[in-house]
Specification:
The complex is a heterodimer of chains A (about 675) and B (about 220).
Chain A: H1 2-22, H2 28-53, E1 59-63, E2 72-76, H3 78-101, H4 114-127, H5 131-149, H6 156-184, H7 192-198, H8 202-220, H9 229-235, H10 238-263, H11 269-292, H12 296-331, H13 335-377, H14 388-391, H15 393-406, H16 413-425, H17 434-466, H18 473-476, H19 483-501, H20 503-518, H21 545-567, H22 592-608, E3 611-615, E4 626-630, H23 634-654, H24 662-683
Helix pairs in contact in A: 1-2, 1-4, 2-3, 3-4, 3-10, 3-13, 3-19, 3-20, 4-5, 4-10, 5-6, 5-10, 6-8, 6-9, 8-10, 9-10, 9-12, 10-12, 10-13, 11-12, 11-17, 12-13, 12-17, 13-15, 13-16, 13-19, 13-20, 15-17, 15-19, 16-19
Chain B: H1 5-25, H2 29-54, H3 58-85, H4 97-118, H5 124-146, H6 150-170, H7 176-204, H8 209-214
Helix pairs in contact in B: 1-2, 1-5, 1-6, 2-3, 2-6, 3-7, 4-5, 5-6, 6-7
């Protein structure tokens, strides 16, 4: 099985090389994306089979590549298989979407070679089982996605985004490199198996946690390492944006789980607290940014930060529960308590993995839809869209579904996973530490606030883009998208609904991955009557997606029938948002800024120092009155701006080094050599 | 008469260090080039001795190239060059001679300490040979750093290169390809540096390296 997986990944790389040769051929787009679709579908099938059959076993192989004394270890276990499913489902959908969308690419030669390489690298990260191959694949993934971000390199904004991304990616890799260095210790054995067997000291574990948060968190977009994400993700072509938001952030989540849960040794309870706090802050900051954003792709990128925050908050909970469970086992305290904590850890981890899967589904759908809107109207600004539900009917339906899913409304999948996360939070009174007892509910309120704001955010997104009247001529003349794109969007949208209707099946499917990471699993769900899911005990809570779906459908149909029966004859049709006045200008509708205004008032002034300045024209002038709005990212101002200033200051100070004489340069080299020899002489 | 292999190898390597010291305090250009020739001669003897005791005939080729190129061809060319450039005058070391010599002694001590400590497990012959080779390399660098004249910097560079060859041949079995490439790289470096010397001279009427700095437009 692992041989087949590796062969498919190698074929993806070969496809990337072929794309370099083919990039000028007229049929290159079809060939490359078609090939990528076939290969990722095969990978997806293999990964799904592996997830279903592997259980707690694993397939391993060692390739004679990489470091000569180490080789390249690859290992396929349930956790890796689950993330392979996530990645390859997103990749297959993106390839299918790009079969249509890729035709609009101005310079396909800048996208085609890197796309399969990006897919292959993401697969490889998940399979790698030693630090060297892991970091190699990780860096390859970063570089391929960086090249894709720069696909439209003629826009200065994209170049700046690419540079920032490259910087943050290098920083993240550096952090991971140091983390692996600490894990391997002096033995220098960089295979994951050796690291897991080493059981590092407590302070090493804590340091590795910090480095993993920096390394994986910067790739996932965890606050305060998120600054590159809302710039780089939207800059890429839409199918790549979908992959970066939907799949690459999940690779980062995978890296975090692999390092912190499996390699860093037994956790302490406060580790969970740190991760939880970062997740909670990410949720609120991400969704607030998304609410105030007017660029649709950037809005989606900010929403990714929110969802990553939710995933990390769940991971933090799982970490805390797991630490307590392991502590209880170690001290031989009440075995039932350890079991309960283990089950709670499994619940939180299931919520995290389920939400990672769900976020891949709906965020990819939304980015695909945003790309379709972009090609149809040429606009990314919410204030230039509107009324697309009439012009792009077959896009509007799955987009509505994805918006409902991301807003965590039943019966869609977003609700199921967020509900699981809240079930885990509700177990916090059982925790022994007071720090956790207080912090978990506090984070819970942050998550709840985030969920409500996300709902508002996607009402705004859908309402402004698809409802109302077109705000620009381009939006008024939008046409339907091509079939391939629609197939991808409908396919993922349908999966959103299915995963929401049958959450029990998904929970059972990811149970081996949960078991592999926290050594416990949730009770079997598929055996329960009526497809109900019961995470802890029936007396606490249960959820039935089908029942909710039937209830919603039935009540909606009844209301619709009643309205039609009693009110349709009396209805008169006017244009949207004219309040019955007749011909009011389209400017009278809600605008992106006006919809966000209450939130802006409530949160923006305090957190983002948002300000609006009204400029009135002098009396008698015919100039229009203007309102200028600005907001500041507190993280950028508080953390990055001083850092940038420091680097510039240092660079200025060290600038004289560029203007030394040749002899001085030689002396520096010489003195450096002598210094190193001295260190060696003293140290040894 | 049979010489004990260890002592002779050390004697030749030590001789190389000694010649390096002589180069360090030599302040006349033509004498410096003669010393460079002597340096290369001692090197070729040392390499030939290694060929003998390691029973490695390919090292003879290294010894012959060292003798042919470094001991004869390059010094002759350098002598011709300084004649054509007309610089037989004194060269001025940047630091005083005594300070330079003290620094050189310090470097040799450092090289010995580092090498003898770090290579405790290696064969004693190779170990001490490498320690001496490192001294030669460090002294070559010191020569380059303390001189202002481009020609004497070339001489320092050449002696540094000799140290590298000594280290490589002492370490038993450097492949022939590496040696040939090293010899070629030296030759090419020599040619390039020679051409540069003439170009510098043409532009600035001097081969003092300092003169270059004054002509750099962006100097603060």
């Amino acid at each position: 099985m692992i041989t087949a997986l590796l062969a498919l990944i190698a074929s993806l790389f070969a496809l990337a090389l072929a794309a370099v040769a083919l990039r000028r051929a007229p049929s290159a787009t079809t060939l490359v994306y078609g090939g990528a679709l076939a290969l990722t579908l095969a990978l997806l099938a293999l990964a799904a089979v592996a997830l279903a059959t592997l259980g707690q076993g694993a397939r391993e192989a060692t390739l004679p590549l990489g470091l000569p004394w180490l080789g390249a270890h690859v290992r396929l276990d349930a956790l890796a298989a689950f993330f392979l499913v996530v990645i390859d489902l997103a990749a297959a959908a993106a390839s299918l979407y790009a079969l249509g969308y890729g035709a609009h690419e101005p310079e396909p030669g800048r996208v085609l070679p890197f796309f399969p390489a990006f897919l292959a690298a993401m697969n490889l990260v998940v399979l790698a089982a030693d630090a060297y191959s892991f970091l190699f694949a990780w860096e390859l993934m970063s570089l391929a996605s960086w090249a894709l971000v720069l696909a439209q390199h003629r826009e200065a904004e994209n170049v700046a985004a690419g540079t920032l991304y490259l910087l943050m990616a290098s920083f993240g890799t550096l952090a991971l490199l140091l983390g692996f260095g600490f894990l391997a210790g002096a033995s220098g054995d960089y295979s994951f198996a050796a690291m897991a067997a080493r059981r590092p000291a407590a302070w090493v574990g804590a340091l590795v946690l910090a480095l993993a948060l920096l390394g994986a968190g910067s790739k996932a977009g965890l606050v305060p390492l998120h600054v590159w994400l809302p710039r780089a993700h939207p800059a890429a072509p839409s199918h790549v944006s979908a992959l970066m938001s939907g799949a690459m952030t999940k690779v980062a989540v995978y890296a975090f789980i692999r390092i912190v849960f499996q390699l860093a040794g037994p956790p302490s309870w406060w580790w969970g607290l740190v991760v939880l706090a970062l997740g909670g802050v990410s949720v609120v900051l991400g969704v607030l940014h998304a609410l105030m954003e007017t660029d649709i792709k950037r809005l989606l990128a900010y929403s990714t930060i929110e969802n990553i925050g939710l995933i990390f908050a769940s991971l933090g909970l799982a970490l805390a529960f797991r630490a307590i469970a392991m502590g209880a086992v170690a001290t031989g305290a009440a075995a039932t308590g350890a079991d309960a904590m283990g089950a709670a850890a499994a619940l939180a981890m299931t919520a995290a993995l389920f939400h990672a899967f769900n976020h891949m589904l709906f965020k990819s759908t939304l980015f695909f839809g945003a790309g379709a809107v972009l090609t149809a109207t040429g606009a990314r600004d919410l204030d230039r869209l509107g009324g697309l539900i009439h012009r792009m009917r077959s896009l509007a339906v799955p987009m509505l579904g994805a918006c409902l899913a991301i807003a965590a409304l039943p019966p869609f999948n977003g609700f199921a996973s967020e509900w699981l996360a809240f079930q885990a939070i509700l177990l916090s009174p059982d925790l022994p530490q007071w720090g956790l007892k207080l912090a978990v509910p506090a984070t819970g309120t942050l998550l709840a606030l985030g969920a409500a704001l996300a709902a508002a955010c996607f009402v705004r997104f859908y309402g402004l883009a698809f409802l109302g009247r077109p705000r620009s001529p381009a939006a008024a003349e939008a046409t339907e998208t091509d079939r391939a794109s629609l197939a991808a969007i409908w396919g993922l949208g349908a999966l959103c609904l299915l995963a929401g209707l049958f959450p029990g099946a998904v929970i059972d499917a990811i149970a081996p991955a949960v078991q592999a990471s926290v050594a416990a699993r949730m009770p079997l769900q598929t055996g329960l009557p009526w497809l109900t899911i019961i995470p802890v005990a029936a007396s606490r809570s249960s959820y039935n997606g089908i029942l909710i779906f039937l209830f919603i459908t039935a009540s909606a149909l009844m209301v619709a029938a009643a309205v039609h029966r009693f009110a349709s004859r009396a209805a008169r049709r006017y244009r949207a948002w004219d309040c019955g006045f007749g011909d009011v200008g389209i400017g009278a509708q809600y605008s992106a800024a006006s919809f966000a205004q209450p939130i802006r008032r409530a949160f923006g002034t305090a957190i983002f120092r948002a300000s609006g300045v009204v400029e009135m024209p002098p009396p008698g002038s015919t100039a229009p009155a203007r309102i200028r709005q600005s907001r500041i990212d507190p993280v950028w101002e508080g953390l990055y701006a001083p850092l940038v200033g420091l680097v510039w200051g240092l660079a200025d100070r060290l600038n004289f080094l560029q203007f030394l004489s040749i002899r001085r340069f030689m002396s520096f080299v010489f003195l450096a050599l002598v210094f190193l020899l001295l260190v060696l002489a003293v140290w040894h | 008469m049979t010489l004990p292999p260890l002592d002779t190898a050390h004697m030749l390597a030590g001789g190389l260090v000694l010649v390096s010291f002589m180069m360090l305090y030599q302040d006349r250009l033509s004498a410096l080039i003669n010393l460079l020739a002597l340096h290369a001669l001692v090197l070729s003897l040392a390499v030939a001795w290694q060929a003998w005791i390691q029973d490695a005939p390919e090292l003879i080729i290294t010894a012959v190239t060292a003798l042919g190129f470094k001991a004869i061809a390059i010094p002759l060319a350098l002598q011709r060059m300084i004649k054509r450039l007309g610089i037989h005058r004194e060269i001025e070391p940047v630091v005083g001679i005594s300070a330079t010599m003290l620094a050189g002694i310090g470097l040799v001590a450092l090289a010995l300490v580092v090498m003898l400590r770090t290579t405790a497990s290696a064969a004693p012959l190779a170990r001490e040979d490498i320690a001496l080779a490192l001294s030669v390399i460090l002294l070559g660098m010191l020569i380059m750093v303390t001189r202002r004249n481009a020609v004497s910097q070339v001489a320092g560079f050449m002696s540094l290169e000799n140290g590298l060859v000594l280290a490589a041949t002492g370490a038993q079995g450097m492949p022939l390809v590496v040696e040939i490439s090293v010899a070629f790289s030296i030759l090419i470096a020599f040619i390039v540096i020679g051409i540069f010397l003439f170009r510098i001279r043409e532009r600035f009427d001097t081969v003092e390296v300092q003169a270059l700095d004054q002509f750099r437009g962006d100097r603060r």
